[in-house]
Amino acid sequence: MPETGLEQWNYKYTPLEAIRKRMGRAYEEAITPFFAGAVHFTQKPFVRILIVGGGKGHFSRDMLPAIKRELAEKARKSGTHPQKMEVFETDLVPEAVARAPGNNSKPNRLVRKLAADIHAIPFSDGRFDLVFGESIIHQGGNNNLEARIKEIKRVMNDKGIFIHIQDNVPFTEESVTPDQAKKAGFTLQAINKGMTPEQNKSLIELADSAHNILIQKTHAAAKANNLSFALGKVQGEVMEPSSRPFKLPNGNSFTEFNSIQHNYGIFIPENDSGISNKERRLKYSGFVKIITKLPSVRGFLNHLEKEFNVH
What we know:
This protein is an alpha/beta fold. The chain has 8 helices and 12 strands. The protein has one domain: Vaccinia Virus protein VP39 (Rossmann fold). Strands 1, 2, 3, 4, 5, 6, 7, 10, 11 and 12 form a 10-stranded mixed beta sheet that branches. Strands 8-9 form a two-stranded antiparallel sheet. Helix 4 packs across helix 7.
C-alpha cells in the first residue's frame, strides 16, 4: 500500500473517478435528480451544502454544474429565480483537496474547499441544510458508523438531509475479509485489467453481501441518533450515437462491446443484438441512503417523485 496520503488516495479512488468520467451522461442522469431534488425540497433561496469525501473536486467540477442546470430549468418553468448555493467541499487528504479546482465565486454559487475529517467536521452546530457524500460512509470501518452519523447530524439544521450515494464496493474488514475479497478476484489491479464474466459475478455477489451489512449498520446508526432513514437506487441509461463500440479489457484480452453496465464500480460489458451498429449504450447504477432530522423521509421522497420523476 502506498505510504503518503495522496498516493493512498490515488491508489483507492483514481479508478473510481475514471469510472464516473467514462459513464458520463448516464452517471449524471442517475445522480443529479437526487441532489437537485434535495436543494429544491428545502424551498430556500440560499442553500448551504457540505460535501464529505470530496476528493479532488469531483462534485464541484462535474456534479454541481448539472445540478445548477436542473434547478435553472425548474425555475424557468415556474417563473422563479434559481436557488443559490454555498458549498463547502471537504476531504480528509489535504493533498487531494489542493488538486481540486480553485474557489469559484459567482452570483449563484460559492464553492470553498478544505481538508476536514468526517469524524470532526470544523463547522458549528446546525450550519448546513444538506450534506452530500459519495462512497464515503464506510471509510474507517463499519464499527465507527454511529460516530460519523452523529457528527453529520450535528452540523445539519433541524430539517437537514444527508444523501449518500454508494457506487463502489463497500469493503471493510467488518463486512468482507481480505481473504474473501481476494478469493472473489477483487483487487484494484484486477479490475483495471478487466474481469472475466465469472469474476464479475463472484465479485458482485460479494459486493451485495458487503453492502447489505453496510445498510443494516447505517440504519442502526441513524436510529441510534434519532434520525429517519430510507434506501433507494439510482439508475441512469443513455444511448449515444457512435459507430465505434467500446473496446474494453476482458480478462487478458481486449474485446469490443456495444453496451456497458456499471454496478458497484465494476464494468459489466455485453453485446446486445437490439442495439444498432450506429449506437452504444451506457447503464449506470448505484444505491442511495437518505438520512434526515425530519420525522419521516416520505415527504422528501414524494417531492422527488412529483418534481423530478424519481421513483
